[in-house]
Amino acid sequence: MVVEIGFGRHVITPSSRHWPIWLSGYGDRSEPATGVHDDLDVRVLVAREGATTLALVALDLMAMSRDWADSVRAGVAAELGIAIDSVLTHTVHTHAAPSTITGTDALGWPVPHGWRDELVAACRSAASGARASACPARLRFARLGLPAALSFNRRSHPYLPTYAVLDVLEADADVRVGTIANIGVHPVVLGPQNRRVSADWVGPCRSEIERRLGGTALFLQGCQGDVDPHGMAWTEDSEAAFAAVQRVGEDLALAVVAATAIATDAGGLGVRAQRRVLALDVSGSPMAAITRRDTLDVELHEWSLDGVRIVTVPGEGFAGLGARIVASRQGEPTLLCGFAPHWLGYLPVPFTDGYEEGLSYGEAAVDAIVRALETVP
């Protein structure tokens, strides 16, 4: 059967009635946001084949705790008339958006709980638009080495980065429906000095892809827990900071455009979805002390869109984890979908003694998740 794919989008920037808001991501930013530089988006991909429909919901947020993510998933599932397990939430990890992680009030990032209904409504609207625009599609995939000038490993781990692109064209024409850019690089060009809402470099990256290629650009954050972009501008000079955001976004967009030129057709295997749940003992771990829980159910999803695998990473994976997941698929086209469907802390590979390990569920839990992700379902 023919796979149909559509894209939808909607602005999710909190409306004025929810202000003041605080931006998340940095521990030393304690004052509320002063305004909006560029709107936050939700972008939704709907893929269907016969009776199977899947929805990928990518939000311009830092991360989502289970309660926030499942509210969005339930809303989109109701909108599309599908099961909640057929909806995945994903965040791009911008550090210039309000927190959607329950409990971060203690970190100085008050969660705008009254905004949740508005956010869910926006996601439902984007999903409805994606369903309405779905058309028979053919998929083309490419994975390339990411140029060294674009990113670096902030933990000095061995780092040979790759990135992937999924190009979606109308089935019977060279008309682009959309492009999925899968890159594992922190959106932290803007530092803690910035107090304006922004998608960071992800925004101009998507805009430049759309300007050059047409269609809708959807960004998937990969395993970026120890990876930062070159060209960061942590400065009080807002004009200089956002000029740097534009440069970094455009440079990464050029890499995406180059990949589409050499992409090859996917295998035409239809739409499939698999779900696993790991039940872990996380007692005594740093994150357990924060979340006050000793057990953890970890959702792992793996989709196939015409033979292109989309593998969820349920937290903030290191680049080493991403490389291991891709290698375990033995050359099959693979996209990494970090922060999906929930944020469960860092997943450091290797696991040592850094800041990130202090925001994890511990080495044993991380090892169990990594081993599961390397096992092809």
What does this structure look like?
It is a single chain. The protein has about 375 residues and is α/β, with parallel strands linked by helices. It folds into three domains: about 5-135, no CATH class; about 135-265, no CATH class; about 270-375, no CATH class. The protein contains seven helices and 19 strands. The chain has helices spanning about 65-80, 115-135, 200-215, 240-260, 285-290, 320-330, 365-375, and strands at about 5-10, 35, 40-50, 50-60, 85-90, 135-145, 150-155, 160-170, 175-185, 195, 215-220, 225-230, 265, 270-280, 295-305, 310-315, 315, 335-340, 345. The strands form five sheets. Strands 1, 3, 4, 5, 6, 8, 9, 11 and 13 form a nine-stranded mixed β-sheet that branches. It has a four-stranded mixed β-sheet with strand order 14-15-16-18, with helices on one face. Strand 3 and strand 4 (about 50-60) form a beta hairpin. The longest helix is centred in the middle third of the chain and has 23 residues, at about 240-260.
Topology (elements, then pairings):
Blueprint: E1 4-11, E2 35-36, E3 41-49, E4 52-59, H1 66-80, E5 87-91, H2 116-133, E6 135-145, E7 151-153, E8 162-170, E9 176-183, E10 196-197, H3 202-213, E11 216-221, E12 227-229, H4 238-260, E13 264-265, E14 271-281, H5 286-291, E15 295-305, E16 308-313, E17 316-317, H6 319-328, E18 334-338, E19 346-347, H7 363-374
Parallel strand pairs: 2-10, 4-5, 9-11, 16-18, 17-19
Antiparallel strand pairs: 1-3, 1-6, 3-4, 6-8, 6-13, 7-12, 8-9, 14-15, 15-16
Helix pairs in contact: 1-2, 3-4
